[in-house]
Amino acid sequence: MSYLPFVLAAWIFLVGIFGIVRSRHFIHLVVSLSLTQSSTYVLLLSIGYVKHGGAPIFKDVPLGTKAVDPVVQALTLTDIVVSVTVAALLLAVAIEAKKHAKTMNPDELRPVRG
Hints:
By secondary structure, the protein is mainly alpha-helical. It has one domain (about 5-50, about 70-110): Helix Hairpins (Orthogonal Bundle), CATH 1.10.287. Helices cover about 65% and strands about 0% of the residues. The chain has helices at about 5-20, 25-50, 70-100. Helix 2 (about 25-50) packs antiparallel against helix 3. It starts with a helix and ends in a 13-residue tail after the last helix.
């Protein structure tokens, strides 16, 4: 078993978290969050990987043939859809913040009052 994909996922996650913490621009924040979420793709796909496994299509395939886990692939696709949705929502919030506050720096925004 190789630990390289797990180390890679942890490294991508930490780089994304570092970018979120150091962000002084909304677009940089969204990109860093997307990077952090993409580390979960690497992690999920490395969990579901089977060495020398085929595609999870079982029509006309002999019993006992190795195949990758289709549930993990479905979870990864769901994670991608959620990631794109979150990025679109955050970019819309960034555009509205730019319109109303004339800044893209989260530190310069004033508190919202009811």
